[in-house]
Amino acid sequence: MAHTENTIQNRKNKHLLPCERGEIAALHKEGHSNREIARRLDRAHQTIANELKRGTTTQLKTGRKPYTAYFPETGQAVYEQNRKNCGAKSKLLVAMEFIDYACAKILDQDWSPDAVVGFAKRQTRWKDKPIVSTKTLYNYIDQSKLSVRNIDLPMKTKLSTKTKRIRKHRRVLGKSIAERPAEVEDRVEFGHWEIDTVEGQKSDDNALLTIIERKSRFYYAVKIDDQDHDSVDYAINKLQHSFGDLFPQVFKTITSDNGSEFSNLSSCLESITDVYFARPYASYERGSNEKHNGLLRRYIPKGKAISDYSRHAIKRIYQTLNNLPRKILNYQQPVSIFEKELAKLA
Fold it and tell me: CA 78 to CA 55: how far, in whole Å?
């Protein structure tokens, strides 16, 4: 059976051709309606109305009154000009002051592009100045339009190659994390910490004791002689002396893994701070500490001797991390939140 009518829909948003504009001019001059012209050209009638409006101009001739008429050349010229102006415009030159600021923060202070954008939005300095979004900033870096390159963004070049392994559980050194109070989980209350150690070279080297407050993400990295319980106990005692009477209020709980270096932690802080131990091989239960240890590795790569770094250099490293605006903190700096919480206790 033969079909007498074609019911296939034409593709929408197909632009008019110059020859079609000539047909529109001829049919319109003959007095045909927009709908009749549209039917003959197999177009939407609104397309014809838009084209007539686009290409209609007022003509002036000596000795005659001004008159308006549609000219296909005018319609084509307006169409081509509109095509030049369409599409998103680059803000690279408009926001150059912010771009320079962002590059300096990324290269000199190891901020991420997202941290720069989020922090800038909170500052009155940039309130009335053009800035770009995080996605646009990453696009400029990918397109090599900035002095920053992808190699300058340590987290972007990382790939996860770890596979899931099932291991036999070891014994837990003290109270399980399952016994930890519910208020520790939601990070609303200040004073709950996660603790871990970071090793340098495999033997005959110093180590780092790292500890982070869960609400503010304030981070300490303390150089210790060795990765054993005596060195950890000594560092904890120094921390107690540093905070004095405020220590029990600042350190309400500490969550550790089951490493042998923390075997004396419960007895060391008995009746002062509650100590809980994560489940064996469940580093995700101390996610904040693991994350910040990864950030620390930007400055002290694995296999690098920690003894090569002075205590002052290590202090500068963790202070840099504490001054890094965090998206999870609404782009506030951990050090500012920590100082506010200490002021409340004082």
Answer: 7
